[in-house]
C-alpha cells in the first residue's frame, strides 16, 4: 500500500468513493453531485490544495486526503481537510495512515498550526480517529447539517500545535 500525490486518472475512482452512501452521510456532499462538480472541487494544480491518494497493492485508489490551505493573511496558519476511505477498504488502518500523513504534512511541510474540521456528531468512529490523533472537540453546531430528511448536529474538531 502506498500514499502518493493524487493524479487526474484517480478522480473517477475517488468520485465513486465520495459518492458512496457512508461517505455522503458523514460529509456535506449531496448524493447526487455530478462528476464535473466533484472534479471542480479538486484542483490538482492549486498552491492552496494538497491531494494525496492511498492505493492498494495494484495502485488502485482506496482512500483520499485533501488539505485545503487558507489564503487569507491572518489565517494562513489554519487549514481544513477531507478524508475518505472506500467502503470495501475500511477497518484496515487507511484512515489512520491518512491522518498521520495529514499531521506530518501540516507540522513539517505546510507550516500549519491549526487543523480544523466539522464532523457529524453521530460519526463516532471518525471522532475517535481524530481524537486519537490529537484533535479535540471545540464545540457543537446544532442542526447544522440536513441529511436524509433530518437535521444533524456537527462537532467542530481542531488540532492546534503550540510553537512557542
Automatic annotation (TrEMBL):
InterPro entries: Acyl_CoA_acyltransferase, GNAT_dom. Coiled coil: none annotated. GO terms for molecular function: acyltransferase activity, transferring groups other than amino-acyl groups. Pfam families: Acetyltransf_4. SUPFAM superfamilies: Acyl-CoA N-acyltransferases (Nat). Residues 1-159 form the N-acetyltransferase domain. This is N-acetyltransferase domain-containing protein.
